UniProtKB/TrEMBL annotation:
It is a multi-pass membrane protein. The gene is Tspan6. Residues 1-19 form the signal peptide. Its main location: membrane. One of its GO terms (cellular component) is plasma membrane. It is found in: Membrane. InterPro entries: Tetraspanin/Peripherin, Tetraspanin_EC2_sf, TSN6/7_LEL. This is Tetraspanin-7. It comes from the Eukaryota. May be involved in cell proliferation and cell motility. Keywords: Glycoprotein, Membrane, Signal, Transmembrane, Transmembrane helix.
Amino acid sequence: YAMLLSLIFLIVLVAAVVGFVFRHEIKTNFESNLNLALRDYNVTADRHSEAVDTIQRTLHCCGVQNYSDWEKTEYFTQKGIPQSCCKSQDNCSEEDLKDPSKAKLKVFVDGCFFLVTSTMESKMSVVAGMSFSIACFQVI
């Protein structure tokens, strides 16, 4: 039992240290993967496209840095900006989404990268506190 608790303690400790030390690399990888997901969006209906839609709907954001990131994608030339960027699904036509000047008024203009990373950083203190309390409990 003591060995199992020691192993869990070490895993929590290593995860916390690795997360802290490599946080910049995690951000960089997340940004590049988000850019790749936008580039390959809906080429095949895969889980990456679903993840992009979920992030955009949940955090009320669009694109990586802003909504204009979609203009560089193949999906934009075919269908415009995705519906998941729309502020209101009822007031968002495909013609509006193909025109960036009209789309600016109907979609979320903020990018998802900043929102996701700021959300993660705000939750890190909670995760760190819980990890520390579990580790203290294990030591006792």
